[in-house]
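Schema walk-through. Below, the input block comes first and the output block second. Nothing else is stored per chain. Lengths vary across the set, and this one has 179 residues.
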Amino acid sequence: MSNVEKVTNISPVDFVYALEMAIAALLSYWAMTVGLTRLVDTPTDLLGGMWAAVSAIFVFREKELDSLSAGIARLVATCVSFALCLPYLWLFPASPVGIAALLAIGTIVMILLQRRGDIITTGITTVVVMVVAAIDPHDAWRQPLLRLADTVVGIGIGVVCQWVGFHLLRRIMSTQQAS
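--- output ---
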């Protein structure tokens, strides 16, 4: 089968799914960039939008329960990272050794929580929080709080958009089949 033949296998449902995910990412980005504008500087504002969009994309799955499950996984991983990074940044400046220590501790915590599949997400979140805290050490302790907010917004918008899109598409398809 050639690549041209594979492309023709994309259905209208696939295009709708792609559009729904793009809308979820855009809404998440806008929610955080507009919402944070009054509270933080522009680079932090843009990072918040990016992180919320990433969270919306992360949870956007084809089935409702898969999206909800991905949202829970993302939230647990982010909460573990938050719980590690916030006290660390209250006491110490961000550093490569600190990042490594938090990655190791986060991995152990996720293993103890029996969530080995979410170790990577915890690690990525921890690295992002700590590197941003190193880039802008002034009020570095705010980074875990901001990234938690970004993540919650992105998860919420992503899950809601997936759910609404799924139900609208199902309704449209059932109407078309009935006629």
